[in-house]
Here is the input.
Amino acid sequence: MLRIAVPNKGALSEASAHMLREAGYHLRSNTKTLVHRDGENDVEFFYLRPRDIAVYVGSGILDLGITGSDLLAESAADAHQIMELGFGASRFHYAALPGTFNSVHDLEGKRIATSFPTLVKRHLKKNAVKAETVKLDGAVEVSIELGVADAIADVVETGSTLRQAGLETFGEPIMHSQGVLIARDGVKDEDLPERARILLRRLKSVSVARTYVMMDYDIRVKDLERATELTPGLESPTVSTLQDPEWCAVRSMVQADNVHAVMDKLYDVGARAILVTNIGACRI
Ligand SMILES: Nc1ncnc2c1ncn2[C@@H]1O[C@H](COP(=O)(O)OP(=O)(O)OP(=O)(O)O)[C@@H](O)[C@H]1O
Ligand SMILES: O=P(O)(O)OC[C@H]1O[C@H](OP(=O)(O)OP(=O)(O)O)[C@H](O)[C@@H]1O
Ligand SMILES: [Mg+2]
Here is the structure.
C-alpha cells in the first residue's frame, strides 16, 4: 500500500484534498481523522502538519508527501520536489515598517523575526549580511510592534496580513513557493512503486485538465499552417477533413489563461466557428 503525507490543516490542506479527489482518490470525511485508508486505490493517507511532512518523507517512513516548497527548503530533510501542484502560491519576503529598509543589505546588525530561520539565515549568508534571527512559531507580523524584531521574514499571499499590521515588503522575494509533491532523496520517478507512479500520472493529468482547454475551429486548408502555428497542441493538433474540400477542422489543446488572445489571432488568420470546451479529466 502506498503511504502518502498530506497537510492536515492550513493553507495547503483544502487545495491538496481537492486535487486528490479530482484525481479519483477517496479521502477522509472527518477533519479529526489522521490516518485514512483508500482501499480501492491501495493508498493510505497520513494527515500531518505541512512543516513535518518533509521529515516523514525524507526519512523514508512515507513514500510521498504534499507540502509547500518553502517548508521543504526550510527543512533539513533528505527529500526533494517531484512535481509542482499549481496551488498555494505565495512569496517569502522581508517586511518592516514603511520607509525603514530598502534591501537585505540594510539588515546588517538587525533582528529578524521568522518561522523559517534556516531559509532566512541562508539568504543573509548569501548576501553577506550579519543579522540576528528571532524564531517565532507564527503571527510574526506583530513582533515588530512588540519590540522583539526590527524586520520580519514571512509568507505573503494576498498581503492583507501585512497591511493590517502596517508593514510593507522590501527588497526582492527570498523565494517563491507553491504546493509540491515530494519524495525521498535518491528516489527517481522510475524507482517509485507502481502505485506512486499512478498517483503522479493522475496528478499531472489533473494539472493539465486545469491548465488547458480544448479548442476546435474550422479553417481554409490554405490557411491551415498559419493557424496551427498558433495552436500547436501538446504533441500535434488533430486535423480532420470537412465536406467542403477547401475547409478543414482543427482540434487542439490550448493554455486556458491564453485562450482569448489565441482566439483573436485565429480569427484574424481566417478561422471560424472557434469553440472552447473545458477538459473534465485526461491522461497525458
Ligand atoms: N495565505 C497563506 N498563508 C499561509 N501559508 C500559505 C498561504 N498560501 C500558501 N501558503 C503555504 O502554506 C504553507 C504553510 O502552511 P501552514 O500555514 O498550514 O503551516 P504553518 O504556518 O507551519 O502552520 P500553522 O499556520 O498552523 O502554525 C507554506 O508552504 C506556505 O507557503
Ligand atoms: O498575505 P496573506 O494572504 O495575508 O497571507 C499571509 C499570512 O498567512 C500566514 O499566516 P497563517 O494563517 O498560516 O498563520 P501563522 O502566521 O500563525 O502561520 C502567513 O504566515 C501570513 O501571516
Ligand atoms: Mg501558517
User: Anything to note?
Assistant: The mean pLDDT is 96. The helical segments are 13-22, 50-58, 69-74, 117-126, 160-164, 194-211, 224-230, 259-268.
